[in-house]
Amino acid sequence: MGLQDTPRASRLHIGLFGNRNAGKSSLINALTGQDISLVSPVAGTTTDPVYKAFELRGVGPVVFIDTAGLDDAGELGALRVQKTKEALEKTDVAILVLTGRANEELAWYRQFQEKKLPVLALLNQCDQYDTPEDASAVLAELSIQLGGLPVLPVSAKTGENIPQLRQALVQCIPDDFWANSITGDLAQAGDTVLLVMPQDIQAPKGRLILPQVQTIRELLDKKCSVMSCTADCLEQTLSALAKPPKLIITDSQAFPTVWAAKPEESLLTSFSILFAGYKGDITVFRKGAAALAGLTEDAKILVAEACAHAPTTEDIGRVKIPNLLRKKIGEGLSFDFVRGNDFPQDLTPYDLVIHCGACMFNRRHVLNRIAQAEEQGVPICNYGIVLAAMTGILDKVVYPN
């Protein structure tokens, strides 16, 4: 998988925030050296956030998020600002594009601080000031208002300080961003890993689903020997191996079958559990599983799916998990379902949130959802961990470090 094939969810998400006509779209074009964002002198040209995947020299695979103006007005403008707030949940590095009138920008900077986001503050269109002294005075005042945060003067029009902006972006990337691993310490060079992959009805014919593809690629990069089979061929595949695999990774729905057939010395986990750690906080998810034991028939559960696919009759989140829980706890158990970017601001009506593996979300997005649940005192768990608990093997499967 080359850089151009890096899934969007695995790319560094760089969000540009600022007032209308601050030059956010022009900055993206200047950074990339291409006209990838629509530019216009008309205020409010960018409405909904625009996501642009790009290979940024010196940085790597990124997604630029070009957002609507923070000062957008009126009923429609308020909706656009709300969409910008949603984009903030996915942002790994924030670029705050200042205009010299920092009312809305200051309020958003405080939001960035609350979320512990790396922030770059820019004074764009610095070429419009009459003298360098005028620009310096504005920069100094903005920096004071931002609590001493340095403000870099740039010009998308002339290219002034655009190379310095690229370098500043590199310095803002969290140290562990590119080091994040799907399998962690569970697989090392020379290990044999067996993947049990029932072909999901939602996967297009002839393709594997994204978590399977990403896991295979990482294992190959680690110099592991990788074999794969479907659940009905598991015993045949195991018998063909000279020795048991070090690790078996299964679709969570096949836990009962695979647990019963696996060799004693083989470790077992699932794609969903691996992605619980890769995209979120596996410690919080495991803690959330403890809430299952305290659920009663009048409990209410929110099931959150990252994918926006149409539900099917075999859907794991909408059908299989609810059926398993109702069978164990009672038919009165109630569920709400959300898909894609939909996620309630108020989670307190729920006794538990169950989230999918989130292969379509970047890690920052999932961590923000986890933080929201924790702040509101609502347990949150993951599909694979729930299914391991329901199978009675939660303490027997392995988790990545």
What is the topological layout?
Layout: E1 12-18, H1 24-32, E2 50-56, E3 60-66, H2 74-88, E4 93-98, H3 103-114, E5 119-123, H4 132-145, E6 151-153, H5 162-172, E7 192-196, H6 210-221, E8 225-229, H7 234-240, E9 247-250, H8 255-261, E10 267-270, H9 271-279, H10 282-289, E11 300-305, H11 316-329, E12 334-339, E13 352-355, H12 363-375, E14 380-382, H13 383-391
Helix pairs in contact: 11-13
Structural notes for this entry:
With 401 residues, this protein is α/β, with parallel strands linked by helices. 35% of the residues lie in helices and 18% in strands. Strands 2-3-1-4-5-6 form a six-stranded mixed beta sheet, with helices on both faces. A four-stranded parallel beta sheet has the order 8-7-9-10, with helices on both faces. It has a four-stranded parallel beta sheet with strand order 12-11-13-14. A hairpin with a 3-residue loop joins strand 2 (50-56) and strand 3 (60-66). Helix 11 (316-329) packs parallel to helix 13 (383-391). The model has no long low-confidence stretch (mean pLDDT 89).
Task: Label this structure with key terms.
401 residues; alpha/beta; six-stranded mixed sheet; four-stranded parallel sheet; 35% helix
Write a brief structural summary:
With 401 residues, this protein is α/β, with parallel strands linked by helices. It contains 13 helices and 14 strands. The strands form three sheets. Strands 2-3-1-4-5-6 form a six-stranded mixed sheet, with helices on both faces. The chain has a four-stranded parallel sheet with strand order 8-7-9-10, sandwiched between helices. A four-stranded parallel sheet has the order 12-11-13-14.
